[in-house]
Design brief:
Number of helices: 5
Radius of gyration: 29 Å
Structural class: alpha+beta
Distance between the termini: 87 Å
Order of helices and strands: HHHHHEEE
Strand content: 15-25%
Helix content: 25-40%
Shape: elongated
Amino acid sequence: MKRRHARACAPKRRGRPPTIRSICALVLRLVRENPSWGYRRVHGELVTLGIKVAPSTIWEIRKQEGIDPAPERASSTWADFLRSQAEALLACDFIETITLDGRRQYILAVIEHATRRVRVLGTPPTRPRTGSPRPSGTW
């Protein structure tokens, strides 16, 4: 009777539950697409997505798959970062010019880093009362 009770009351699984396969697949995808990310960066991205998993679990998944830790961060330079992010980077500036007839004109311009294309987003109309070309809320 004692053995039967012990068999019936024993927990089915012992230890920590296994990590869900979809989370493992997501971790491996993030690691393969971003080889310079360490396990803490991957953990931060998963937290942003609302997935609760420990950083040590990510480290274990990488270790089981034979993926080495991220390389040293000192090897990446500012130029490497700019090259990798060029599609998303824009720079904007206000430019003040003087036209041929002596009036000042303000220009809002943006440059796309990936294509090095400059786009003029607008120049304000001159105000009817004052004749001032300064930017206002009516752009």
